[in-house]
TrEMBL record:
<dbReference type="GO" id="GO:0008168">
    <property type="term" value="F:methyltransferase activity"/>
</dbReference>
<dbReference type="InterPro" id="IPR025714">
    <property type="entry name" value="Methyltranfer_dom"/>
</dbReference>
<keyword id="KW-0808">Transferase</keyword>
<dbReference type="Pfam" id="PF13847">
    <property type="entry name" value="Methyltransf_31"/>
</dbReference>
<feature type="domain" description="Methyltransferase">
    <location>
        <begin position="60"/>
        <end position="160"/>
    </location>
</feature>
<keyword id="KW-0489">Methyltransferase</keyword>
<dbReference type="GO" id="GO:0032259">
    <property type="term" value="P:methylation"/>
</dbReference>
<protein>
    <submittedName>
        <fullName>Class I SAM-dependent methyltransferase</fullName>
    </submittedName>
</protein>
<dbReference type="InterPro" id="IPR029063">
    <property type="entry name" value="SAM-dependent_MTases_sf"/>
</dbReference>
Amino acid sequence: MDYINSNKQAWEDAFDNSRPGWGENHLEKLINQTLPFFNQDVIVELKEVGLDGKTIAQFCCNNGRELLSAMQLNPKHGIGFDIAENFIEQATQMAAKIGRANCEFIACNLLDIDEKYHGKFDFIFFTVGAITWFEDLELLFSKVSKCLSPQGKLLINDYHPFTNMLPTPGEGAYDPKHLNRAVYSYFKKEPWVENNGMSYITPEYHSKTFTNFPHTLSDIINAVIHAGMSIQKLSEYDYDVGLSDVYNNKGFPLSFILVSEKMGREI
Ligand SMILES: C[S@@+](CC[C@H](N)C(=O)[O-])C[C@H]1O[C@@H](n2cnc3c(N)ncnc32)[C@H](O)[C@@H]1O
């Protein structure tokens, strides 16, 4: 899977080209704020699942800020996995600086997570912009399911696939006078192949190649079910979680939270 390796290079390059100041306040927020880096709806779900005493993991943890934030809910142990070695190094350093000895970070492709982690986690979570890096969600959630303990839970908070139909500011098709227009196909299959940097981390520059994949809501739900997990809750929200707020509160589904639980068997 060449795209996995080229994404690794692109994410590590994005870290090396991060805009001055990116990440500088992460430590300060982790020290001084309660559950920074999560919105209120995610916080409600995290508390409802209950992390106290659990072994938890974040898949695609980037520089670890969200997992380190979740550690405030008192899990026994936390592990963050991400393919980019320099982000993982920063995460490890942040954990040490705030004294989270029970939180560690591992650099690897999620699909290659070592078998010693199978059955280990009571809770695994993905946050915004993570599952799009995987072409085959059946493979991804099969790995998630293997890593969960029986009755372990999965939480995904991400862009709603409906947002794939909307042009965002900066794109040619974007027209601020017509914000009620869906422009792109919901059922797009081709990946996005981009070389413009990673806008929330870097300035725009000619970057290494990022390849990510569109998935419909049914793609996501069916892959979770096929991996032997039951859907416990699916919530949809009319606010954006990172692209642009221009479509907020207009009746469009812009983000979602899915909670599921591992059943005793894989289907
Ligand atoms: C947009 S971030 C998601 C995390 C967090 N919400 C954030 O905004 O930083 C996507 C992360 O996925 C990681 N990633 C991409 N492909 C991966 C793979 N095959 N295995 C593990 N991590 C991967 C990237 O390195 C990046 O840190």
